[in-house]
Write a structure and sequence with these properties.
The chain is of the alpha+beta class. The protein has helices at residues 11-24, 46-51, 53-63, 69-76, 80-90, 99-109; strands at residues 5-8, 29-33, 36-41. The protein has 2 domains: 1-41, YefM-like domain (YefM-like fold), CATH 3.40.1620.10; 44-110, no CATH class. It has 6 helices and 3 strands. Strand 1 (5-8), helix 1 (11-24) and strand 2 form a beta-alpha-beta unit. Helix 3 (53-63) packs antiparallel against helix 4 and helix 4 packs across helix 5. The radius of gyration is 16 Å and the shape is globular. Pfam families: UPF0175. It comes from Thiohalocapsa halophila. Belongs to the phD/YefM antitoxin family.
């Protein structure tokens, strides 16, 4: 999933089509006013219907790499363990290490 797209309130007049295209692709967007976050646009999709707003937002932002596991669990209102179960149910890997990163983590544990 792509990272979070940011739109200003002023952008909405000229870029509303882009915002809708992002939503159609399942991407969460942030709309700012005067440089401050004002609105989070969450795609209205099956994930939202199945999980609710908080959990769908947490899943989308975690999948996009915008939130850590701990922060996403907090947004979802779940323990990290329960959020990891939600990730599993949604088919989203909780950990996404390359082979080299995993080897480094294992070496560090030894």
């Amino acid at each position: 999933m792509e990272s979070l797209d940011v739109f200003t309130a002023r952008d909405l007049r000229q870029r509303s089509g882009e915002l809708l295209s992002d939503a159609a692709r399942g991407q969460v967007s942030l709309i700012t006013k005067n440089g401050r976050p004002a609105i989070v646009a969450v795609p209205f999709d099956q994930r939202l219907l199945d999980s609710g707003v908080h959990r769908a937002l947490a899943l989308n932002l975690f999948e996009a790499g915008e939130l850590s596991l701990a922060k996403a669990a907090k947004v979802a209102g779940l323990s990290q363990e329960d959020f990891m179960e939600l990730l599993h149910e949604a088919g989203i890997p909780a950990v996404d290490y390359s082979t080299e990163e995993l080897a480094g983590e294992l070496d560090a544990m030894r």
